[in-house]
Design a protein that fits this description.
The chain is mainly α. 63% of the residues lie in helices and 6% in strands. It folds into 2 domains: 70 residues, Multidrug-efflux Transporter Regulator, Chain: A, Domain 2 (Orthogonal Bundle), CATH 1.10.1660; 46 residues.
């Protein structure tokens, strides 16, 4: 069997690393953090920001909306809120679908076993 190397993925990135990845200044990231209340990176004991992959994805969405799509900050906030609501609705739809499928499965098992009512 061939040797498979373990890949270790980083859990946190510094503000400097995130700024470099996005091609922006650290001050812009701090500004977006202040303007978009949903962005709350973890802090070290010294107060340094630590960004998760989810934080970085949110920053990328903000950057896309503001820099590429030309949204105002308020427009970007509204768009992010709308997207979040759609994601929640999709999750709820999937939960309802899963519940319905479990009901159908239960009825099919009952039919198979001859316990139909």
């Amino acid at each position: 069997m061939p040797w498979k190397e373990k890949t270790i993925e980083k859990l946190y990135w510094s503000i400097g690393e995130v700024a470099e990845q996005l091609g922006v200044n650290t001050s812009l990231i701090r500004y977006w953090e202040k303007e978009f209340g949903t962005l709350k990176p973890k802090r070290t004991g010294k107060g340094d920001r630590l960004y998760t992959k989810k934080d970085i994805e949110q920053l990328q969405r903000i950057q896309h909306l503001v820099k590429e799509k030309g949204f105002t900050l308020q427009g970007a906030r509204d768009q992010l809120r709308k997207t979040e609501q759609q994601e929640v609705a999709t999750t709820l739809d999937l939960d309802a679908l899963r519940d319905r499928l479990l009901e159908i499965r239960t009825k099919l098992v009952m039919l198979r076993d001859g316990n139909a009512n």
